[in-house]
Amino acid sequence: MTNFIIALVVGVFFGFSLNKAGLTKYNKIVNVFRFTDMTVLKFMMTALVVSMSGLYGLRGLGLIEFPNVPSTYIVGNIVGGLIFGVGMALTGY
Amino acid sequence: MKFILDYIRKDEWSPYVAGVMLGVIGIAAVWASNSLLGASGAFENLAGLIGKAVAPAAFDNMYFNFIMPPGISWGVMLLIGVFFGGMIGAATSGTLLWGKKGSANSDEQWKRVFGPQVWKRWALAFIGAIILEYAAGVAGGCTSGLAISGGMLLAPAAFLFIMGMFASGIVTALIIYRKNY
After folding, report:
1. Distance (Å, rounded) from C-alpha A45 to C-alpha A61?
2. Using only C-alpha atoms, what is the Rg of chain B?
3. Of A15, B76, B101, B154, which cross-links B82 as Cys (Cβ 3.0–4.6 Å)?
4. What is the ipTM of this complex?
């Protein structure tokens, strides 16, 4: 139960940050593929760098353990990504 | 204090500030409940739940039995939170269009490219969402579940996915925008 409440709270902040970064807008998503607006990349890569260093640091200190790392199956990941890009550029979600 | 409140009311944050916020949330999710942020998996959990109730035979396969078991999962709760979080974000900046005129098709750029009709917006969103969800199923995650959550654990899958996503996204945008690219 507490887990679900945590999920709800985390979700609210997650949605909030997505909205404030402008990722809920069609033009932001599509323009990154047209190289006219790099907001998506700036946002994604900042998040990656922050959480990456934080998580590895905390694991190094022995404070957390990693959940299941998404499994690698090269063809599936790339083909999935290729189909995903079509949908993303089409709808802007 | 006033500075912070003013910043919260701003419609568009610097992507770096919002990115730091998401990064901290990503860490918090792992730390507090050992889970990863993600959106597409939750839809599959819900689809499985409905499917098992409506057509149990069709949903009695490997995918819905083992890979994406149906049920109200952590991700489903997260998704509910995301919905309200997005609304709060829009409400604080005064851009919440819920129930207002023209809110069903409000993006200027979208109207320029595809036209002002609302049905077109909904039809394209529906078709695109099918493509997105199917692709997320194939790849094992979406932008948040695989690219961001996997990337922060340095999973190779995430970077393969980002590669594919941008390659086909750029081509699709080229086709849609043609001369105006």
Report:
1. 24
2. 19
3. A15
4. 0.90
What is the pLDDT at residue B140? 83
User: What is the share, in percent, of chain A residues with pLDDT greater than 70?
Assistant: 100
**CA-wise closest residue to A12 among B93, B28, B16, B87:** B87
Do A84 and A90 touch, CB atoms closer than 8 A?
Answer: no
From chain A residues 15-74, the ones with a CB under 8 A of any chain B CB are 15-22, 24-27, 30-34, 39-40, 42-52, 54-56, 58, 63-67, 69-74
For chain B, what are the domain ranges? 1-96
Distance CA B136, CA A80 (A): 6
CB B53 within 8 A of CB B42: no
Tell me the C-alpha distance between A75 and B97, whole Å: 41
Residue A48: both structure tokens together: 């990656």
pTM: 0.89
